[in-house]
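Researcher: Structure for this, please.
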Amino acid sequence: MPGSLDDLQGSLAAALGARLGASKLDRGELAIEVASADAVDALTVLRDDPKLAFSTMVDLIGIDYRGYPGYDGPRYEVIYNLLSLVHNWRLRVRVACPDDDFPALDSVIPVWPAANWYEREAFDLYGIVFRGHPDLRRILTDYGFMGHPFRKDFPVTGYVEMRYDPEQKRVVYQPVTIEPREIVPRVTREDAYGESGKVRNG
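Model: Predicted structure, token format:
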């Protein structure tokens, strides 16, 4: 039988002590905050403490809060979604990047090796650097890609585009040539569409 969320909150408080920041219970799920300086230690405790036993990191998510209504904290955050198979608990651990100009956190690969590609994805899409990562490079975009496409200030059309140049016999980059345009939906209807007593053909 799974333990209750009250049991989970009590175990978290006992195991993490002062490292446990704010916590929020929402729709039957618990989210806690941990300072970036304490993140690796706290996550190691969450994995190793038998009363918690969060042996699985299900996912790692980057967030850019720029322009978020009513929010005035750090711009970038990483959320670790954890699963305890022993206790049948799920937990979200929120860790804010303290520097908006250079968002960085310590890698959690020593805690969960599965974090490798997730950290690369957050680096690629948000520009969040994971210190100590053994191979931090892009994973979804091209190696020559400029910028980080999930940042809220990234232009919709990007900065450059790529194409194959038959003369050079290779892929080349060039400034974006897409011109902004306004898309107006075109609706085509039969004559007298919707009039009383009319029946559409087909």
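Researcher: Any notable elements?
Model: Residues 5-16 form the longest helix (12 residues). The two ends are 58 Å apart (CA to CA).
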